[in-house]
Design brief:
By secondary structure, the chain is an alpha/beta fold. The protein is built from 12 helices and 8 strands. The protein has a single domain, classed as 3-Layer(aba) Sandwich (Rossmann fold), CATH 3.40.50.150. Strands 1, 2, 3, 4, 5, 6, 7 and 8 form an 8-stranded mixed beta sheet that branches. Helix 3 packs across helix 4, helix 4 runs antiparallel to helix 11 and helix 5 packs parallel to helix 6.
Length: 285
């Protein structure tokens, strides 16, 4: 893997999606540590990634050749779940760990059904921040905002003035935790952080979640997990039982907690377990 040879000014780099060597340290000081959002971008065919991201992403591909298809299946779930939630009347979305924007974005899907939908994206990666602010544009009646925050610091996130300006936490909110919780270790009180987010939302809110798992092929997933951790990246695949705990006492909608390809698919799915993510949507009573 080599970095791009052409050198660009920062604005051009943002527009083309290529971040050259000269700007890596300034834009993202941890560019030598693989980042899941940039690996995900690489698997989806994007250009917003560094050599370290591609190196680990390619190692995943060597061990799991269908990794690109799994990433797309996870992305497709976002579209289906957002469509479902918008049809249920949800007009507010809080998407934590949004990653680098990939179309169709969540707000595009939701606002196609209800133009007055408000969406707040949350991430703590400077590269994601730059792209989100450039590409996520509000429409005439709906609103799109981005805030830099950490899911482990729920109080600070919920108190952010931009979030409070865009979301009315007295009305139902769809909390989206898409392939993000695997980046946080249990020792950081992850269950507690998710519980605090659930508690902050009113009755009628929803939680949509996906999470990678070793349940379908433990040896391979354990091997790539060790490789990720060896680079300094936190990666924690979890079992179906562990993922179910994130929903607390909220009521899972049909079909429950299932492989990501098996959650309300648009057509027949030959092998739902071919994408190694658990997924589900639950409603707060």
């Amino acid at each position: 893997m080599t970095e791009p040879t052409a050198k660009h000014e920062p604005e051009t780099s943002l527009q083309t999606g290529v971040l050259d060597d000269a700007h890596q340290q300034a834009v993202h000081p941890d560019h030598l540590i693989p980042n899941s959002a940039r690996m995900y971008d690489y698997w989806l065919g994007g250009k917003d990634n560094y050599a370290a991201d591609r190196q680990l992403a390619d190692l995943f591909l060597q061990k799991i050749p269908s990794m690109r298809e799994m990433a797309r299946a996870n992305r497709d779930f976002v579209t289906r779940a957002t469509h479902y939630l918008a049809e249920q009347g949800v007009r507010q979305f809080l998407d934590i760990g949004t990653g680098i924007p990939t179309r169709p974005n969540l707000h595009e899907t939701a606002q196609a059904i209800a133009p007055d939908t408000h969406v707040v994206y949350v991430d703590n990666d400077p590269v994601v921040l730059a792209h989100a602010r450039a590409l996520m544009i509000s429409n005439e009646v709906g609103q799109v905002a981005y805030i830099a925050a950490d899911v482990r610091k729920t109080e600070a996130m919920l108190a952010d003035p931009e979030l409070q300006a865009q979301l009315d936490l007295d009305r139902p909110v769809a909390l989206m935790l898409i392939a993000v919780l695997m980046l946080i270790d249990d020792k950081d009180d992850l269950q507690g952080a998710v519980a605090r987010l659930r508690d902050a939302l009113p009755s009628g809110s929803y939680l949509a979640l996906t999470h990678p798992t070793a349940d379908f092929d433990p040896p391979v997933v354990n091997e790539v997990t060790d490789s990720a951790r060896a680079t300094g990246m936190t990666f924690v695949p979890r079992s179906q039982k562990e993922v179910a705990e994130f929903f607390g006492d909220w009521e899972l909608v049909e079909p429950g907690l299932v492989p990501v390809r098996g959650w309300r698919p648009d057509g027949e799915v030959e092998d739902p377990e071919s994408a190694w993510y658990w997924s589900g949507v639950a409603r707060k009573p």
